[in-house]
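ok, trying the design again with the full structure, not the truncated one.
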């Protein structure tokens, strides 16, 4: 840190199709973005990753992040392994556990113990990588067992192994990322104090426990042309599971007021509180202030990526903001 000499990357809007993902990835590479990141909110992220890789030649492409428990470890490992080889080592596998309600409603699966399960999931994925390279192997863990990851005989002896990033907010998941991940994908609902006093120590503790280097930190910076769009998006992220970020940053009373307003269906009031009392603490930047936003958050990250709002705006509007961000990045 800061940014290890890198320029920021860009997160593609989650609803783009594969053809548009190809075009935006090309535009991002031409604008000087160092990476293209794919969310898992509407489309299949590995297919969008393939699209982004297909017409680019230099940028990294990664999931930020794919929902781990929606897919078996072997399925995830196979997709990441093939994409990384095909791209010449440019693919990054970003994984997250996702919250209980979304797992059940969107994917029809559950994870009773997401932290230990994700640790075991990553171990299973890495065991699959070894099996693919050596042409044989298996995995037996606390939550996952894969007895024949190599179904068709053969060894990919020279193929590169994709790095694995893990997303998290709470200290437990962050520490697990420190234990087993190559990178940590921080959520944009983040304050500098929470990063310094919770995230960084938890990563370091997990890494020390496992006897491995502390993972690289990837920060997502939300960028929009107006405070209204920024506050609207952060209101969508103001869920009970994330309030710990505000509590730790001395904003507990604001968190109470925001969550009460949302529970009473007073979203406009919640957004107004975020705009007036919380927004300036979070990882956000106005489009016109992009250089200062990158400077502020880039000095705290090994990698930085720029993303745009999605809540309450159309897909076309999201794409237009992405292109404005790319113009700003190109001028820097």
């Amino acid at each position: 840190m800061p940014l290890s000499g890198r320029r920021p990357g860009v997160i593609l809007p989650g609803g783009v199709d594969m053809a548009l993902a190809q075009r935006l990835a090309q535009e991002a590479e031409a604008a000087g973005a160092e990476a293209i990141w794919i969310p898992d909110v509407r489309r299949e992220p590995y297919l969008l990753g393939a699209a982004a890789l297909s017409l680019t030649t230099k940028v990294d492409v990664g999931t930020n992040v794919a929902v781990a428990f929606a897919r078996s470890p072997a399925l995830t490992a196979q997709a990441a392994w093939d994409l990384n080889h095909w791209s010449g080592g440019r693919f990054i596998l970003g994984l997250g556990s996702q919250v209980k309600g979304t797992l059940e409603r969107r994917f029809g699966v559950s994870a009773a113990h997401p932290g230990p399960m994700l640790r075991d999931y990553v171990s299973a994925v890495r065991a699959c990588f070894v099996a693919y390279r050596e042409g044989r192997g298996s995995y037996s863990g606390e939550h996952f067992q894969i007895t024949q990851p190599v179904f068709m005989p053969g060894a990919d002896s020279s193929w590169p192994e994709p790095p694995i990033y893990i997303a998290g907010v709470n200290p437990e998941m962050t520490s697990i990322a420190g234990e087993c991940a190559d990178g940590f994908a921080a959520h944009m609902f983040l304050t500098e104090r929470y990063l310094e006093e919770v995230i960084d120590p938890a990563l370091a503790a997990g890494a020390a426990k496992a006897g491995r280097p502390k993972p690289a930190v990837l920060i997502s910076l939300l960028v929009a042309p107006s405070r209204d769009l920024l506050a609207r998006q952060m209101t969508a992220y103001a869920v009970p599971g994330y309030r710990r970020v505000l509590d730790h940053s001395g904003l507990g009373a604001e968190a109470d007021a925001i969550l009460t307003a949302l529970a009473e269906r007073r979203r406009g009031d919640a957004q107004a509180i975020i705009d007036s009392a919380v927004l300036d603490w979070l990882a956000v930047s106005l489009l016109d202030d992009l250089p200062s936003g990158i400077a502020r958050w880039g000095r705290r990250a090994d990698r930085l990526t720029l993303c745009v709002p999605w809540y309450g705006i159309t897909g076309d509007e999201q794409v237009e903001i992405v292109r404005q961000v790319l113009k700003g990045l190109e001028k820097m």
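Keeping the full-length input from now on. The radius of gyration is 19 Å.
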